[in-house]
């Protein structure tokens, strides 16, 4: 969401249109929501703002029968699922990105207090062991640290991809933490996965990568022991957020799955509502943004590489072919959403215009052209995005760029 929001236009029944306008305004008016619950646990590029998700979740809850299931087919790191969980709604999320699924499950891991405390205590124990191992490694005659060999990854190729991103002492410390988590996986897969998400949350912080979305190598002076301390802090942060979140509702089901095949995990007509933010055409490359994390953690990502919808790389040279593929993927996703929804139920979608392959892509037009007779537009709100780069200014000179909240209804 922009720091300098633009004018908002809306259409549809007054109650619905006003709620959509409120959803667009929410990030500027309630920016602190992004730091509540488990929202601040793990960075994720272009995530749906939690304040927007909260307004829309409340709107959908008001227009759904009691006990209805809310579905997010593009759940990303779980923002919608967290807000659904906080509102006491049953929820289901899917995403092609295995890292997104890992993080979304961790952020909504509302288990009994005893289990949550077990995760925290084990996390601190692992951090202490890694610190001690790091000190021992500095003594004369210390053995070189063994390298992990995640299943399905060529160890030499993995090492080449990771070597330049971490200082040797940082890499050793991270691998020690990861190996300790792996040792506990047989005892409790859920706790191991949650701690793996905690490790993922600190990887870019202690690497030489500029940020989630910037793959530039930058020099960083990461002190010895910093990785272990950051890991312990992230464990504590998640533990506290889950304690706040675990006061109502039930944990969601999160699947690594393609939104275009939603019927394989969500029975036809069973969803009381859908709340989602699909990829914006040609804007991000989630597979590339998360490559370092995926390689380090040993998360297989072929499905994401091959199936990512609307990626920036798909628009690099393909021109009309990429646009057609994007529209086909959007059409199939909307059909899948319509198939999942109960008759009369609503789907709220947050999506923005984009600059893809050198041309303007108007998301509201794309959604409308991709609808079949199952879904109709019940209301919409659009907020202008005046902050544009040079190429964008040329592409959008005839018609302003905007962000949209679209409310669809199953006929």
Mean pLDDT: 93
Largest sheet: 8 strands, mixed
Tell me the Rg in angstroms. 22 Å
Protein structure class: alpha/beta
Helix content: 40-55%
Q: CATH superfamily of the largest domain, called what? A: Vaccinia Virus protein VP39
Shape: globular
Q: How many structural domains can be distinguished in the coordinates?
A: 2
Poorly predicted spans: none
Strand percentage lies at 5-15%
Report the strand count. 10
CATH C-level label of the largest domain = Alpha Beta
Across the major sheet, the strand order is 1-9-10-6-5-2-3-4
Q: What is the element string, with H for helices and E for strands? A: EHHEHEHHHHHHEEHHHHEEEHEHE
Oligomer: single chain
Helix tally equals: 15
What is the first-to-last residue Cα distance? 31 Å
CATH topology of the largest domain: Rossmann fold
CATH architecture of the largest domain: 3-Layer(aba) Sandwich
């Amino acid at each position: 969401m922009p720091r300098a929001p633009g004018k908002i236009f809306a259409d549809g029944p007054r109650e619905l249109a006003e709620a959509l306008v409120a959803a667009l305004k929410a990030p500027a008016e309630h920016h602190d929501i992004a730091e509540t619950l488990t929202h601040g646990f793990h960075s994720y590029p272009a995530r749906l703002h939690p304040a927007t998700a909260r307004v829309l979740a409340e709107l959908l809850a008001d227009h759904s029968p009691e006990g209805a299931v809310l579905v997010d087919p593009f759940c990303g790191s779980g923002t919608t699922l967290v807000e659904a969980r906080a509102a006491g709604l049953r929820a289901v999320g899917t995403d092609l990105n295995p890292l997104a699924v890992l993080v979304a499950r961790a952020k909504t891991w509302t288990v009994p207090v005893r289990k949550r405390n077990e995760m925290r205590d084990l996390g601190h124990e692992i951090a202490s062991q890694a610190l001690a191992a790091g000190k021992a490694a500095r003594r004369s005659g210390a053995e070189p640290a063994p390298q992990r060999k995640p299943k399905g990854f060529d160890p030499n190729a993995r090492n080449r991809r990771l070597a330049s991103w971490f200082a040797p002492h940082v890499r050793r410390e991270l691998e020690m933490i990861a190996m300790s988590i792996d040792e506990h996986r047989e005892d409790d897969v859920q706790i191991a996965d949650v701690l793996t998400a905690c490790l993922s949350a600190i990887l870019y912080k202690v690497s030489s990568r500029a940020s989630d979305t910037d793959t530039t190598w930058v020099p960083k002076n990461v002190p010895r022991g910093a990785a272990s301390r950051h890991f312990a802090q992230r464990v504590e942060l998640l533990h506290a957020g889950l304690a706040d979140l675990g006061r109502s509702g039930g944990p969601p089901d999160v699947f690594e799955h393609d939104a275009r095949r939603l019927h394989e995990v969500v029975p036809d007509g069973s969803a009381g509502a859908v709340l989602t933010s699909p990829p914006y055409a040609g804007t991000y490359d989630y597979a590339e943004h998360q490559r370092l994390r995926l390689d380090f953690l040993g998360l297989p990502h072929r499905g994401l590489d091959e199936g990512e919808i609307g990626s920036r790389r798909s628009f690099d040279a393909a021109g009309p072919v990429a646009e057609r593929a994007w529209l086909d993927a959007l059409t199939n996703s909307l059909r899948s959403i319509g198939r999942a929804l109960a008759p009369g139920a609503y789907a709220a979608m947050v999506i923005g215009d984009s600059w893809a392959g050198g041309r303007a892509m108007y998301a509201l037009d794309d959604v409308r052209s991709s609808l079949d007779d199952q879904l109709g537009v019940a209301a919409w709100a659009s907020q202008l995005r005046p902050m544009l780069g040079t190429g964008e200014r040329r592409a959008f000179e005839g018609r302003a760029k905007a962000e949209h909240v679209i409310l669809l209804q199953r006929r």
